[in-house]
Amino acid sequence: MAARFALCVHVARAVTRTSTRVLGQGHARSLSSDTERTLVAVKPDGVQRRLIGEVIKRFEQRGFRLVGLKMLQASDKLLAQHYVSLQRKPFYSSLLYYMTSGPIVAMVWEGHNVVRSSRMLVGNTDPAEAAPGTIRGDFSVHISRNVVHASDSVEGAEREISLWFHRSELIDWEGWDHKNIYHL
Ligand code: TYD
């Protein structure tokens, strides 16, 4: 059985409840679209190359909210479910081998159009096609070691988030800078 690494953002639920209560007065979310969520994962090559902070930085500076974060050694079973649509691809077995070769940092990011925006931040699947300025365009060379995963649709994101995270691991919080990022 795959061992789990311990890095988990388990912000105490009591703290979250307090924050929500304090911030909630007069700061209730007025946009439903700003609660769209996506799964982003720093793959084993990204972890080995110390790129976790770089990936987080790009999503934070854009204005998205981190609502879940953990490091784990993913199991074959989890990855088989995650990549179910790729089962018949010739690269499938090497993809699973690589994705289980070391720890992964899985995250859930939230915000307006976060699925589409994160695909732009991450860049093309093939680093040779990924624009400079994107994560893959800046930090990778070969398609089989492209540093990061990001869900490709809202429906896919919901499915992937439920595979990688338990509901209790996701924290609902309100950013103090909300009115500076969103048109209310
Ligand atoms: P895919 O879901 O098509 O791309 P993305 O990650 O951009 O959503 O493929 C999943 C991963 O499979 C991809 O990130 C890298 C790997 N892969 C290969 O190793 N070789 C390939 O030819 C392709 C298409 C993907």
From TrEMBL:
SMART domains per record: NDK
- Residue ranges occupied by any Nucleoside diphosphate kinase-like domain in the UniProt entry: 35-172
What are the entry keywords?
ATP-binding, Cell projection, Kinase, Nucleotide-binding, Transferase
As its record notes, the protein acts as a catalyst of: a 2'-deoxyribonucleoside 5'-diphosphate + ATP = a 2'-deoxyribonucleoside 5'-triphosphate + ADP
Q: Which GO terms describe its molecular function?
A: kinase activity
Location relative to the cell: Cell projection
Provenance organism: Labeo rohita (Indian major carp)
Q: Active site annotated at which positions?
A: 149 (pros-phosphohistidine intermediate)
SUPFAM superfamilies, per database record: Nucleoside diphosphate kinase, NDK (SSF54919)
State whether keyword Transferase applies: yes
Q: Which EC main class describes this enzyme?
A: transferase
Q: Which InterPro entries match?
A: NDK-like_dom, NDK-like_dom_sf, Nucleoside_diP_kinase, Nucleoside_diP_kinase_AS
Major location (coarse): other
As recorded in UniProt, its EC number(s) are 2.7.4.6
Per UniProt, where does ATP bind? 43, 91, 119, 125, 136, 146
State the name under which the record lists this protein: Nucleoside diphosphate kinase
The record's similarity note reads: Belongs to the NDK family.
Q: Which Pfam families match?
A: NDK
User: Which cofactors go with this protein?
Assistant: Mg(2+)
